[in-house]
Amino acid sequence: MDPRRIALNRRHSREMGELYRQFLNAHPTAEFGDIPMTAAEDAAWGAYSADLLARHQRERAALAEQLEAEQRGRAGAS
Known about the structure:
Elements: H1 3-26, H2 39-77
Helix pairs in contact: 1-2
């Protein structure tokens, strides 16, 4: 796997983990760990994390596009 993709995945994991920590602090009644979230908690988490998730998706798509362009460039240079 490309090191840039690994670095991006790690950063995304850290950011989502931090956001989840903030969510749990803001929603102290939300369950975590082995106990699944209720439907309401899951919906609240989905709304809370939507902006970050969308940004992560855009960043992954941009990197994938860049890597594919580099691959095409190398294939065309051969």
